[in-house]
Amino acid sequence: MQIEVWGEQFAWSFRYPGPDGKFGKAQPALMADGTGNTLGLDREKDQVAKDDIITTTLAVPVNHPIELMMRSKDVTHSFFVRELRLKQDLVPGMEIPIHFTANKVGKYEIACAELCGMGHFGMRADFLVMTETDFQQWLREAAQPQ
Fold first, then answer.
1. Fold of the CATH domain 2-143
2. How confident is the model at residue 131 (pLDDT cuts 50, 70, 90)?
3. What are the boundaries of each domain within the chain?
4. What is the pTM of this model?
């Protein structure tokens, strides 16, 4: 399963492909936090982007191989989940993959481990490792407001 991780001062965003299994094109010119289009998706013209799911919580099924595609919108950030021993820098202009399999159900904290500005202390998000059934239910619910 592939999930995109986007870091920006001072928040995390996570994007899941919809039922088509593909990500729509992120267009920097369309990125506008004020309108809720944080990743610059053109949901009207880009058919692939229509079903993308964007959340502020990262959730994965337990015992399932995961690939995170890491990206930064502005400065260097560092994705860090202490309990899972995951740490990876996000560098502007680069797409950096990391692979892992979480083997214990639970709720963990994602923190930015790279000083990224005045609001760095608040750059945190929840990371949920769930059973397959619970994850599928969570994903259906996350897709609703899109």
1. Immunoglobulin-like (2.60.40)
2. very high
3. 2-143
4. 0.87
